[in-house]
Amino acid sequence: MQRNPMRWLAASLAFLSMCASVGAASAMWAPAPLEVLADEADLIIAGRVTAVGPAGFALFNRPQDLATIEVLRVLKSLPGVGQPKQIQLVQPAAGGPGVSTDLRYALGVEGIWMLKRDAANGFYVVNHPFQFQPKTDWRKMVDLVAAREKVAGGKPVDGLVARSEVFQTQPQPGPTFFEVRFSLKNTTDQPITVCRYAGNKPLQTEWTGPDGQPQASVHYDWLQRARLAGVQERDFVVIPPGGVRYVGPNSPESGVFFQSIPGRPNAAINSAAAGDHQVAVTFVNPEAGKEFDLENVWTGEVTANVATFTAP
Which residue in 1, 9, 199, 288 has the most C-beta neighbors within 10 A? Predict the structure, then answer.
């Protein structure tokens, strides 16, 4: 099947329209950790907007602009992206009905952008405000990207490396939370397509508690109360060469959550007894995408490095 060259842009920007709150003065944004945004970026630059003009097309019946950004410094660039001197960013055109989630960058704006690229036409998109950081945070971003290059993973399987990381939060007062985030890295020189459809429960866990006994994770228990449509083409995502994409039990960037005891976790959070825990996450994909005429979809299983944490 021949893909519409604007489909990727439409899918990327759909988030903006779906998150709009009717009558709200400001947007409601889902959390987006900088680690996730940096990992999934095809290009991270420091730059300056030098021109804004009509793109010549519309998305969701809304005219679009192209913001031309002069690249001052390149912090990250995937193979095939290169070291551009300038890039063009798609954004909703000014004027007409506004949406609270519109993200626009005016002439003269300078900062750091974490960008995804549409390989079909060379445009870039921003679909979360955190993808733009102030230029004064350059050193912080340099350190972040360097740290992300060192993230451990499991053994590669057919070009994919699975990676698990533990992030700990401690609300005051309250129990300690541990989030095991999972991502896939393409180690080949060709794009790899995977399916992230939550209904297939693609993340399987082997969780061992402090007593050495296997524990059952509840990260997909929310599906018992959900009515999901079947697999859709949008559930398939392309991982560019050298690129990273996240897979979660709910949204792609969500993790498998654990909560120390005492506490009353909700149906999607595991109760973690005091002591050491080990969690091995395996990504399983049986979907080949034939019903959507997709080709070269990765199928099989790949296991991440073992994630560990100590609950108080």
Answer: 9
